[in-house]
UniProtKB/TrEMBL annotation:
Gene3D superfamilies: Zn-dependent exopeptidases. Keywords: Hydrolase. The keyword Hydrolase applies. GO terms for molecular function: hydrolase activity. Residues 182-200 have a biased composition (Basic and acidic residues). It comes from Stappia sediminis. Residues 182-201 are annotated as: Disordered. This is N-formylglutamate amidohydrolase.
Length: 290
């Protein structure tokens, strides 16, 4: 590729690039990281805190670079530092010295899943047996949060260099039913897929429509902005007035994994093949936009 793209960073970021950019389309998986840093000292067992991972999402889209599109994936876990939150999305009372930082917590932070998580799914049990300090949080933001956002920005800039526009899909997974740490109704069943554009503000409506129709044609049940509207990454990256079009995609974990044992289901490869086809067809649509 002729344009400068970001490089992978050991234990932090995995940047997977195509040999040739087929269309100005970029994918990123910010919550699939599984490399827990040495200073992550939870008081909960692994079987609990790993529920926060968007497990296998980076693998489900592993063929994207072969199709001609970049894929950025987090290697560190979201429960350690969640790059799909604003850097100040932390509840002050969650820190030993919260007054040392200027913080703007959202409803997610109040549930214990802000930029740095303090509670574990599914019921919100404390993640640590102590309060973290502002210094620890700042270090995570500097070492993890900032490099991820910088790398994604470079990828989007590079992909848009020739076409003067770029399309972006922010990849996630969701539990089959809402638990007490979710904002939708407790126990409510989620669809196969949720496509989100923050109520039409992060991309052209045609991009949302194309993604929905392709997924539906592949046999998936799809909802738009329900129950997820889109979070920080698409909010920052999606500027349709500047030719920057970002979508968030949530994939129901029940399509490919056992949510209790974390094992892949027999239909894992079938789901992966369909998602690869989704990426290919969406890329064709982007290429057709001229």
């Amino acid at each position: 590729m002729t344009t400068a793209f970001p490089q992978s960073i050991t234990r932090l970021l995995d940047v997977r690039l195509p040999d040739r950019l087929a269309a100005p389309l970029v994918f990123d998986s910010p919550h699939s990281g599984t490399l827990y840093p040495p200073d992550f000292t939870p008081c909960q067992p692994e079987r609990r805190f790993r529920r926060a991972e968007d497990m296998y999402v980076d693998d489900l889209f592993a063929q994207v670079p072969q199709l001609g599109f970049p894929l950025l994936a987090c290697l560190f876990p979201r429960i350690y530092c969640d790059v799909n939150r604003a850097a100040d999305d932390i509840a002050p009372e969650a820190l030993a010295d919260g007054e040392a930082m200027t913080l703007v917590p959202t409803a997610k932070a109040l549930l214990g899943k802000g930029t740095v998580w303090t509670r574990t799914p599914p019921d919100g049990a404390p993640l640590y047996d102590r309060q973290l300090t502002a210094r620890e949080v700042r270090r995570r933001i500097k070492r993890c949060w900032r490099p991820y956002h910088d790398a994604l920005a470079v990828l989007l800039d590079a992909a848009s260099a020739e076409a003067q526009c770029v399309y972006h899909v922010n990849l996630h997974s969701m539990q089959t039913r809402a638990n007490p740490m979710h904002e939708d109704k407790l126990g409510s069943r989620r669809p196969d897929m949720v496509v989100s554009d923050r109520k039409g503000t992060t991309c052209r409506p045609e991009f949302t429509q194309a993604a929905r129709e392709i997924l539906q044609d592949l046999g998936f049940e799809v909802k738009v902005n329900d129950p997820f509207k889109g979070a920080e990454i698409v909010r920052v990256s999606g500027r349709p007035e500047d030719g920057r079009h970002s979508l968030q995609l949530e994939i129901n974990r029940g399509l490919y994994m056992n949510e209790e044992t974390y094992e892949r289901l027999p239909q894992y490869e079938e789901t992966k093949a369909k998602l690869t086809e989704f990426a290919s067809l969406l890329g064709n649509w982007v290429a057709s936009q001229g």
